[in-house]
Amino acid sequence: MAVGLFDSGLGGLTVYKAVAQRLPDVPIVYLGDNAHTPYGVRDFDEIYELTTKGVSRLFQAGCDLAVLACNTASSAALRRIQEDWVPPDKRVLGVFVPLIEALTERQWGDNSPPREVELKNVALFATPATVRSRAFQRELAFRAIGVDVETQACAGVVDAIEEGDLILAGALVRSHVEALRRKMPKPEAAVLGCTHYPIVEEEFRAALGPDVKVYSQPALVADSLADYLERHPEMRGTGETPMFLTTGDPQRVTDQATRFLRRKTEFHAA
């Protein structure tokens, strides 16, 4: 009954933590492609190849359902994976769906015409590849009208987090928020469109101020996954052993993950 979580590195651990709390009885196989992080500076074909390779490893571990706990992979590769690659008895989901549901206050299966929503000015902070894909704006446009989305490509933030330099990451966050405000002085809401960003969420909140509603993905994804598994219990998979896998140096990733999760988290070579 294992469920797979895939990320380009450590950021997906924010989703893992929320999912493990929400679904404590579901074994989770986590795979971080730390050898190739960050994905945000790569081209779409390369992101697709790396993502399909990672998801294949999750399927081998007994997962019938894999969640791309990575906005870059979700925005650049998910649609192509779902249409052209995923086997018929498997499923691959992304992290944008729960976010769009929360922003538009409508369920994913609601195919009624787009309608106006309360929020009008939304800031999207994401990796350069996610910004280039325009996936967020495309999915939002299917469900809402009259929403102005201003994007800010947050170069360097993922690298700093992966290196464990949260001081640098915080400084970069403040710089990117300032750049966003030059384009959109008064955003009503801000989307942290990368699963690494909750690690520095407080920096985003402090820089944006109390009047900006911040949407962070881990809890939204965990709740959405719980609902999906309730509706599709057959997708829990055959795997029974939770594990943490990495394409990078297992000891180095173990040390980083242990600091983040504040408990021993042993990674093994994928």
Describe this structure in words.
- The chain is α/β, with parallel strands linked by helices and 270 residues long.
- The protein has two domains: 3-94 and 218-269, 3-Layer(aba) Sandwich (Rossmann fold), CATH 3.40.50; 97-216, 3-Layer(aba) Sandwich (Rossmann fold).
- Helices cover 45% and strands 18% of the residues.
- The chain has helices spanning 13-22, 44-60, 71-76, 78-84, 96-104, 128-133, 135-141, 157-162, 166-183, 201-208, 217-231, 250-261; strands spanning 3-7, 28-32, 65-68, 91-93, 115-116, 121-126, 144-145, 148-153, 189-193, 213-215, 243-246, 267-269.
- Helix 9 packs parallel to helix 10 (201-208).
- The protein is globular.
Terminal-residue CA separation: 20 Å
Main pleated sheet: 6 strands, parallel
Q: What is the total domain count?
A: 2
The whole-angstrom Rg is 18 Å
Named at the architecture level, the CATH assignment of the largest domain is: 3-Layer(aba) Sandwich
How large is the count of helical segments? 12
Q: Percent of residues in helical segments?
A: 40-55%
Q: Give me the CATH fold name of the largest domain.
A: Rossmann fold
Strand order, sheet with most strands: 4-3-1-2-11-12
Per-chain topology:
Layout: E1 3-7, H1 13-22, E2 28-32, H2 44-60, E3 65-68, H3 71-76, H4 78-84, E4 91-93, H5 96-104, E5 115-116, E6 121-126, H6 128-133, H7 135-141, E7 144-145, E8 148-153, H8 157-162, H9 166-183, E9 189-193, H10 201-208, E10 213-215, H11 217-231, E11 243-246, H12 250-261, E12 267-269
Parallel strand pairs: 1-2, 1-3, 2-11, 3-4, 5-7, 6-8, 6-9, 9-10, 11-12
